[in-house]
Amino acid sequence: MKKPQNKQKVFILSLINFLVIIFFIVVYYLPEKWSLAGWKDFLHRIERVSLNLRYGIFAARGGSLTAEGMAQRQATQSEFYRLIYLVSVDEESIKEYKSYPLPSSVWISVLDHFLQQEPTRRPRSLFFNIPFYEKPDPQFAKKLEGYPIPIGMDFRLEDTGEYPDYESDDAQAMKAFEIPFPYPEVLSHYSSYIAPPSDYTRNTTYLGYLNLEGEEDVMYKVPLFASVTYKKGDTLTNVVYPSAVLMMVLAYTGVRPETVKILPNKVILPQAQLKEKTMDIVIPVDKHYRMRIHYKSQGQYQYLRNISLKDIFRAGLPRQTLLIFGVRSEGTAANKFASPMGSMFSADHLAYGVGTILNREFLSDVPWWIELVIIISWLIILQIMILRGLKTTIFALVLALLLPLGIGITLFKFGWIFATFLPLIAGIFYLIVGEVYILITEEREKRLIKNTFSRYVSPDLVNILVEDPSLVQLGGVEREVTMLFSDIRGFTTLSEGMKPTELIEFLNVYLSQMTDIVLETRGSLDKYIGDAIVAFWGAPLPLEDHALQACTAAVRMVEKLKEFNANLIREGKQPINIGIGLNTGVITVGNIGSQKKKNYTAIGEPMILTEELQDENKTYKTNIIMSEFTYQKVKDKVIVRELDLYPYLDRYVRIYELLGIV
Known about the structure:
Layout: H1 6-28, H2 39-57, E1 84-89, H3 91-97, H4 104-115, E2 125-129, H5 138-144, E3 151-158, H6 169-173, E4 188-190, E5 192-194, H7 198-203, E6 206-209, E7 213-215, E8 218-223, E9 225-232, E10 235-242, H8 244-253, E11 261-263, E12 266-274, E13 277-284, E14 290-292, E15 305-308, E16 322-327, E17 336-339, E18 342-345, H9 346-358, E19 364-365, H10 368-387, H11 390-413, E20 416-417, H12 421-453, H13 459-467, E21 477-488, H14 491-496, H15 500-520, E22 524-529, E23 532-537, H16 546-570, E24 578-593, E25 598-603, H17 605-620, E26 624-627, H18 628-634, E27 638-648, E28 651-661
Parallel strand pairs: 1-15, 1-16, 2-3, 2-16, 3-6, 4-9, 19-20, 24-26
Antiparallel strand pairs: 3-5, 7-8, 8-14, 9-10, 11-12, 12-13, 17-18, 21-23, 21-24, 22-23, 24-25, 26-28, 27-28
Helix pairs in contact: 1-10, 1-12, 2-11, 8-9, 10-11, 10-12, 11-12, 15-16
GO molecular function: adenylate cyclase activity
Protein name: Adenylate/guanylate cyclase domain-containing protein
Keywords: Membrane, Transmembrane, Transmembrane helix
């Protein structure tokens, strides 16, 4: 059976990598109309879990903010959230006014209350997220007309398929709030709406629709503009309206709707007045002019300031506030929607949308092609790591779990949304499949080498068996011995560059020289495991200085390696390096096997540590590592360098580099 060449491994792993990229990556970025048996939707659903997790990680913690407890969040809240107040029609307010919907006299008294305040103490803007769909009250309509504080109301867009008449009284009352838009074809389209009475919309300062958009009923974005189709005579015409979020920001910052600049992937609010500053606010949007809302809290925790409507008359509000009146009572209105942070009332969604803009805490999606390049590069790095060996593969697995999450969380902190679970799942899947392939091929190679060399046994055993035939029986005895485990570094790669005859000759020369050292120091050769040598001192012949003899053998092996490498270099071949592990402990030694085939060998837990120490030479860039158990027996006769505390089973073992014999 011919060993697979390294180029073949690279090719197979590259092919697996390509298939993973096609399946996970390309499927994820397919056009929206394609799903491929639901895989696209499944991957996006998984990614939304990751996005919700990032929202949750950065969620505000702390108790609900009332008028009395607002100061507790001053140090942590973003600047303009301190000026956004939710005035809630809650259950206590409904009990106070003994009806729902509330009579318009309540709203008239609220407006009168603000008029009684000094102009500098009045709110900067009022917005009613209240369903004013009942018969209009002329007194309330008159109160709205010419009110000195900007007042806004919302309406709800629907897609019933029945187009409203553009010449109707309601449509004409909303005409003042239409907005010119250069790319109406990219916007979300609706066929109808539910708006407040025209008596109110004619007199209100600004008007915007309430609708948000999301995936699987979870609201992530607010479309800043949307199109409504009207009947205009015998034809249909589309009219663009702004969202309530955008209109609240325009009213608060003093930006006129007609001055808003609409550019590809961004909306600019020029000369916005934010406290004492004047600036252009640049809002990043997607191709449908939707802005991601930066939600700030979850569950029972409230980032927003909340005042019960019944307490508004005695609440001491700071200057320049934006008041959003909304219903916050379960069962009174269908105004609760899911967000990445849990279910929220519509006023909460609107407030977070406004806060996102005023605080310029925007969330932007990393362009898909950049994501694709990064993820493909990441999978190529994993392929390189898996080719470097099992330990590197284990490290790669840890990275595959932690790095995408770390990158996703870090980028979110800086306002970027990057696909996180996608590279995590794709990377782990690739590592599992790739490592299974590596293990299958390398196991086949190891088996070939073991079958070739397992027949060799120590000559010392022959002499003992001649003198004491009883040792041929199955069984064993416990004996304190010093064990040695030696292995050639990078042997699999080295062997792939040799012809079979060259490999046999190479191993014969190397193993013969190293085995001679074991036998010359009165050690017993346990076995060859491919290129590895396993030996022990102290059995079957008792040996008082077994630890020193094992250390001597290890040092001589390293010295012999220099001669061996010098010959390789003279022949124009690549020199090799070895790692040796030494450990002392009580093991079971004996002749183990069947009646037809027996092998004198050692069994016991200390053998495992010996092999691990051999492997750790790669970590510490050494040739010989001994455990503290061996060092205690030879500490006056050897030269060592203390390396580390090595975790083994339920304890730490001190390990040393063996440099020489005194």
